[in-house]
């Protein structure tokens, strides 16, 4: 009898676990990225979560919710304080070049006052990441708006639209959704790179 109860209890736990995991669809990721690339994307998301987290055991929603007020008040500056750029560069080296190249590409940033030309990280036009966002946006108008802005500008905007949208539309930017987590991680890691990279354009 005890073995039967343990078996029933185990089945219930598995069903609950399965139902929680299946709440969020990953079909858009699977349609646009290989299994190895999805593993790299998970590394990117986890790295960002760990960088912004005061407690490494906290989940993404808890970690990001704590810094959201600072983002609303101070723009992306809290990200600069929390994300270590040297470790971010180590992250780039830990993922495949093919994954990196489907998300980002380098362009030239020119500073007219000094004539300085630096490498600047931007969105890879028509890369798999843009295609993922476009597909994801078909069922989420806020993500569609974000994807359209990103593709049109070719860059990750830094004026605060994303954090305002997350604050005003928490149902559309569900912080428990791994797709939203990835969008947030890539967005703010890019801004961190743009602000801290000092490589000269060659």
Description:
The protein is mainly alpha-helical and 202 residues long. Helix content is 65%, strand content 8%. The protein is built from eleven helices and two strands. It has a two-stranded antiparallel sheet.
Question: What's the helix and strand layout?
Answer:
Elements lengths: L1 H20 L5 H6 L2 H18 L7 H15 L2 H6 L2 H10 L2 H7 E8 L4 E8 L4 H9 L4 H13 L7 H8 L9 H19 L6
Helix pairs in contact: 3-4, 3-11, 8-9
Shape descriptor reads: globular
Structural class assignment: mainly alpha
Largest sheet features: 2 strands, antiparallel
> What is the first-to-last residue Cα distance?
73 Å
Mean pLDDT rating: 88
Helix content percent band:
55-70%
- Spell out the helices and strands N to C: HHHHHHHEEHHHH
Proportion in β-strands? 5-15%
> What is the number of beta strands?
2
Total helices: the number is 11
What strand line-up does the widest sheet have?
1-2
**What's the alpha carbon Rg, rounded to whole Å?**
19 Å
Low-confidence stretches: 12-22
